[in-house]
Predict the structure.
Amino acid sequence: MRYLPLTEADRRDMLAAIGARSVDELFRDVPATARLSGKVAGLPDHLGELEVERAFQDFAAMNVSPSTAPFFIGAGAYRHHVPATVDYVIQRGEFLTSYTPYQPEVTQGTLQYLFEFQTQVSLLTGMEVANASMYDGSTAASEAVLMANRITRRSKALISGGLHPHYRSVIETTAHWQGYRVVAAAADAEGLEDLIARIDKETSCVVVQNPSFFGHVRDFAALAEACHAAGALLIVVVTEVVSLGLIKPPGEMGADIVVCEGQSIGNGLGFGGPYVGLFATRDKFLRQMPGRLAGETVDADGKRGFVLTLSTREQHIRREKATSNICTNAGLCALAFTVHLTLLGEAGLRRLAEINHDKANELADRVAALPGVELLNESFFNEFCVRLPKPAAPVVEALAARRILGGVPVSRLIPDDPGVANLLLLAATETATERGMAALVAGLKEVL
């Protein structure tokens, strides 16, 4: 059979080899109260492949998905159009079956695309060097704080109130086990916080996000100067990497480390993953950067080749000396990012960013015109925050019941702050349509 290849004789031989009399005996450590006494109710014994496909299509149809409903959800994960070419390339066997390069000199194709990926990330962020990707944006942010602690030999991280709450949680979890302090500012829904006054001689780094969790766009040049004057580093987080097609890159603001979530380019929403973390820094900090670095060289015959120039040692030797203990470099997602960005080119990325901003401007104007709705942003890219005249969570649920995915209530991600109960985040990418915007505005008007 396709899924049960072992014969009864095979099973008897295997049980005899391990000294078990039956398959049931393998589960004797599981309490009887935790075992099913019979079949799962409502689950058929077996179905043919066609019937299984139809059954799961029926299950899937119960969801309100981005492809079937007006979609304005962001908050760190964004719906963008991914060209079919991206999937075609990454599903080629030589890429799909390849993973982290343990023998890098052999996998020239893998190293070459990682080299191209690093170049793209450096250009996007305005930094001098980038690694060959990280696990995702949040863990990259945590790794950036650890890196800043090593460089400054300090152990206090100052976290902006505009940083995504999930990123803050990952940093705080790492801090708990690594023994450094995290001082987090209150949620900055208005975009008015002053972090400069809170920097002291114990501060190793200041972590900010641009655009912020609430959508605010800021120039952090003055903050970068204040950090450097105090001997601290500035870490800039970008959760919507398409924004770098229009917004001044963090490197030009004086950032020391830039981390991004690269999902928006080449990678679908995917129920939260897999995603890809971007990590870039200054050349002088190269030796403290976590992850791998692919480099260009020439071989013995003078031909161009690629090598793993630097690699953290979490998978090799001296694990306690490693700059990172997260092994995954999200290589396939990095390839998807590189293919998509190559298809766009510089002009295409700028145009994509312009379309995102235009769509968001249109939506913001229409939503802010509703009675009792207040737009909190003076500036934004493709996501903004509004204050509703009633709590946002039930409003979003009511919209979902009307098959409209109308944003993210801030209270879902910051549940312990009663001051954010009425705040709603709305994102509009190039996938937003006139029909979808009209449905959202009409739905909000009805629900409110």
